[in-house]
Structure formats: C-alpha cells, structure tokens
Design brief:
CATH superfamily: RelE-like
Strand content: 25-35%
CATH architecture: 2-Layer Sandwich
Number of strands: 6
Helix content: 25-40%
CATH topology: YaeB-like fold
Distance between the termini: 21 Å
Strand order of the largest sheet: 2-3-4-6
Radius of gyration: 13 Å
Shape: globular
C-alpha cells in the first residue's frame, strides 16, 4: 500500500511550513518531514487512525493525529490518499467545503 498526497493536502503543508518558518525555517522543514514520516506509518496499517467525527455520514474518512494536526484520508483498498492536513484548533464542523 502506498500513501498519495492530493494537491490541497500539499497546499496545507506549504501553509503550515510558511507559518512555522516565520520563526525558524529549519524547524519548519523538520516538522513537514515528520508529518510525511507519520503518514508513511499508514502504509501497513491504514485503519490506525480514528474515524473523523465531523464526517458522520462517511465511515471511510479517518484521521491520524500528529502534534495537534489532523492528517485526513479516506480508507481505500489499494492505496491511501491524504486529502487534508488541518490544525486541530480549526473548526472542521463549521468549515464550508469539507475536504471529503
């Protein structure tokens, strides 16, 4: 099984990196690398993440929590596709145009 990243998820990572880089570009790069590393843990165990509570109607939407960020992905038989990386303090329930 392989982890794929959607363009919106990569844009989320760019925004996170830009925000952290305001203080330290070194730590910004390191943090993004660690998010990628965390996502690779999904390859052997795609259902390791919990179901996303805000996706009530979608039982296939799961998330892996990494240092206050939600790595959101649907479970699929052949591959994992990361669809969003959202800070845990953001109101996902009130968000228009949810990632799924």
């Amino acid at each position: 099984m392989r982890v794929n990243w959607t363009e919106p998820a990569l844009e989320d990572l760019e925004a996170i990196q830009a925000y952290i880089a305001k203080d330290s570009s070194f730590y910004a790069r390191q943090f993004i690398e660690r998010i990628f590393d965390a996502a690779t843990k999904l390859e052997p165990f795609p259902e390791i993440g919990r179901r996303v509570p805000e996706a009530e109607e979608r039982t296939d939407i799961r998330e892996l929590i990494f240092q206050g960020h939600r790595i959101i992905y649907p479970t699929q038989p052949e591959h994992i596709t990361i669809i969003a990386v959202i800070h845990g303090s953001r109101d996902l329930a009130g968000m228009e145009g949810k990632p799924w």
